[in-house]
Design a protein that fits this description.
By secondary structure, the chain is an alpha+beta fold. It has a domain of 72 residues. It is built from nine helices and eight strands. The chain is extended, with a radius of gyration of 30 Å. About 3% of the residues have low confidence.
């Protein structure tokens, strides 16, 4: 590789050939430390790529094979409570992209949470909703998904109501919960062994739920899916058969048995695996 630079002979001794430096960089062993010049060039290239990217966080470098993806790891100097709203918004964008778990300040997650709630409130205000009703059974599902108490559920209902979003009454939700339990589910707190953040073990109280009769639970699940018209029979499943998948999982020193009804169109574990 030649730089094709024209200069007097007396200056050739002190001339630094750019082409020669480029060749050294391209042939530099990957295992060896980078030179200061390589560090400066690499930093400049990455900053330029990030400045040209759509999100300012990720960049792609073309290779002979799969492109190399790089990401900007946002390490805030200040907590969320000490910065301006644009910076809080930037932290949220990085967090949403899943590029850096440290983007949220550990000492001020409440500030970040309030910022996200404020964004949601602004979005709901902009919709100008007159009346929206959450379908029956969905609010209990939300409660179960986020593991909230009845007290918190009432707060959520009041918060939704101010934006014109109504839910079924608490007595109706409690009745649905009672139907699901149906004297067939036993729950208690047990001291179980868990792994801590340092790789060791810790004993802490853990919710333990047991189904007394698997047969009764299967029939209850079939009844629920049937009432929602989600059961189906196709060419693979005969019309007089119900297919049931039984599985198990070992983790943390415990064994969990699961089942899934096969007579549904979408086998989503989150909604059909019990």
């Amino acid at each position: 590789m030649q730089c094709n630079t024209t200069m007097p002979i007396r200056d050739m001794e002190n001339h630094i050939c750019i082409a020669d430096e480029a060749s050294k960089i391209l042939t530099h062993p990957l295992e060896e430390p980078l030179t200061p010049m390589m560090e400066a060039i690499g930093s400049r290239i990455i900053k330029s790529k990030l400045a040209q990217s759509a999100d300012g966080v990720t960049a792609s470098f073309q290779t002979r094979g799969q492109p190399i993806q790089v990401m900007y790891l946002f390490k805030p100097r200040n907590s969320s409570s000490e910065v301006l709203p644009p910076t809080v918004k930037k932290k949220k964008r990085v967090s949403d992209l899943g590029k850096d778990e440290g983007a949220l300040s550990k000492d001020c997650t409440d500030v970040q949470f309030r910022h996200e709630v404020k964004q949601l409130e602004d979005s709901l205000d902009g919709m100008h909703l007159t009346r929206v009703t959450i379908p029956k059974g969905q609010f209990l599902t939300v409660q179960a998904d986020i593991c909230t108490s009845w007290k918190k559920a009432r707060e959520h209902k009041r918060w939704l109501k101010q934006f014109g979003i109504s839910t079924e009454c608490e007595s109706s939700v409690r009745a649905q919960q009672a139907d699901i339990i149906d004297d067939n589910i036993s729950a208690r707190w047990l001291p179980l062994v868990h792994k801590d953040e340092d790789g060791g073990t810790i004993i802490k109280k853990t919710p333990w739920v047991i189904v007394k009769s698997l047969q009764a639970k299967v029939f209850q699940q079939l009844k629920g899916l049937g009432s929602l018209k989600l059961l189906e029979w196709n060419a693979a499943i005969p019309h007089d058969e119900v297919w049931l998948k039984i599985g198990g999982d070992i983790g943390g020193g415990n064994f969990k048995k699961v089942f899934q009804i096969g007579n549904v169109q979408h086998q989503t574990p989150h909604t059909t695996l019990l």
